[in-house]
Amino acid sequence: MKLILKLIAGILAGIIVGLYLPTSLVDVLYTAKEMIGQLITFTIPLIILFFIASGIAGLPKGSAHLLGKTVGFSYGSTILAGTLAFLLVNLVLGFLTGNTVFEAQISNEVSSYINLEIPPLMSVMTALVTAFVFGICMSQLQLSSLKKVSDEGRDAIDALLSKVIIPALPFYIAGVFAEMTVAGTVVDTLQTFGLVLVAALIMHWLWLSVLYIGTGILLKRNPIELIKNMLPAYFTALGTMSSAATIPVSLRSSKANKVKDDVANFTVPLCATIHLSGSTITIVTCAMAVMFLSPDMQVPSLFNMLPFIMMLGVVMIAAPGAPGGAVMSALGLLTSMLGFNEGAVALMIALYLAQDSFGTACNVTGDGIISLWVDRFSKKAS
Predict the structure, then answer these.
(1) 2-105+117-381 belongs to CATH 1.10.3860
(2) Cβ atoms 14, 178 nearer than 8 A
């Protein structure tokens, strides 16, 4: 909640600076935005490299049947959730937003005092392939020394995110909104913020309703009882904004739904790192909204969007526990696959972080369904 309030303060500060203060102060915010943006761009491949490699290397051993089922159900849920979000947004959001247009253009009156470029060490795809190659090798060959390097690299990037980049985001957002205020596009942009956030929340609840009603019917269980038992995990995730921090409550809730202890003990911690249906819904919804509102961006078809959704389910593996970890992991895909520019990326970060707790709650509550299905198929296999 403190981060959300800081982001709101950053938006308001940017608007006030852009409206009432001298251009020199706008240039100061714009300079901060440019430098923070360079740091974010530099960090994206490192997030993908270290977190995915460490996540794959740390997958549990000795329970191949449980691992396969959990990964399969989790990835399937993430892809279906993202696809549903795309279809609904494509039908509804364009009609609701009307002719509102967001332009992430640089005003001629704004300039940066420091022109500093920090090129990333590698491209997003190079980082992704490298992470999979080393992650699988570490897992299969038991390369403990290399895994330690990967884990420590993950911890270093996580510290960079939580101690530097995330605290700097309000200044980044302030610079973007000051720039838009000078360019005269900030009012139209703000009018859509509430709409997009409400749309994301509605789709979270719709997806959870589909999961629990469908599972209740197919497994001959009472959906109301199932969701009631998972509510403690939902509300805990709202407060913690972390799937990992909610694991103890998620475990208790899953076991209350009569999932066997050994299945729950395996699936719930694993799903906390690989099942991100709520985060996928939010990122797809916000990305679609930004593309709808950007005159220089074309909204892709479902078949062109599916590769992005499928890659999204991969790059968010073991997303860092810092708030906004999922969207930070996805920034590389947004720029490389959807063509997002810096202004669009800033809007994505602001929109995502404004509802991060609800996306996490959707992830965690969906974990209960994954546990139920893995438990059911484990019974059949035994």
Answers:
(1) yes
(2) yes
